[in-house]
# Entry
Amino acid sequence: MSKESKKILLSGVKPTGRVHIGNYFGAMKQFVDLQDKYECYIFIADYHAMTTVQNRAELMQGIIDVALDYLAIGLDPKKVILFKQSDVPQVTELTWMFNCITTMPYLMRAHAYKDAEAKNKEINVGLFDYPMLMASDILMQDADLVPVGQDQKQHVEYARDTAQKFNRIYGETFKMPEHFILPQVEVVPGIDGRKMSKSYDNVIPLFATDEEIKKAVMKIPTDSKGVDEPKNPDESIIFSIHKLLLIGEEAKALENKYKKGGMGYKEAKELLIKDLIAFIKPMREKREMLAQDMDSVLDILKEGGKRASMKAEKKMKEVREKVGVEIY
# Structure
């Protein structure tokens, strides 16, 4: 398939916090799987992060971490444009133009705003205007598809509404993006059985050391069934995590082992630790190797930023002409 005929897929990743295997199986892995099928733009959403991260060192480290994480799991900079949002200044310029055609009651319907308001949080203008910055990210690169979870479809709806409104006022300019619900991935359970989440402190970090893996798995709660008793794999947190790592018949064979009896939870945990180490170790080592050559990693981001910004500037030239500020 030629690059010209490929659809454009765009996704942003906020540089906040250490990634875990829930992030990997929930979204990150799919970007690697999709990089041959689509023309992919993956950006590090550093301006979005500023609504909550207001510490220079933390933000800089977060940006570097996301770049390392995505390159370590197999994102190929020859196939994917990986860039920093702040390297495309046209996005904030476009956001201002979108702000001028957007009403406050419309933005007050955003989930993030309503959620913050319900919790009586003090809401900064950045959080309030978040949907418009996201609409600019999406529409600027002429994205056809935006991968989102079921709960994030509203972001794409805001981009579509904004494109429609701008096109109606100024003439056909922006493509109508579609949301792309990632192929059905089961909710990845944390080590306490709830959804894996940093806020629950129940995660297995994606680039964990062998010791961190052992410690996390040994914390998984189990029932009191003895070694010889059959166990229900559907009720086992250990099995729920383990099956993510297994291919085809391997998962079925392990499931039967649980049902048959003769395998205690200690053995089940040891098997999970072994397979997690085998899964995580190569990615962790690749990440460590990449971190030793940060100049090359930063060059990838700079190059991605240049390419994304060149494309954005073409679009902004058209936009400036349409709105009437391009007079020279």
The chain has two domains: 3-187+294-323, 207-287. The beta strands are 8-13, 39-44, 80-84, 145-148, 178-181. The radius of gyration is 22 Å.
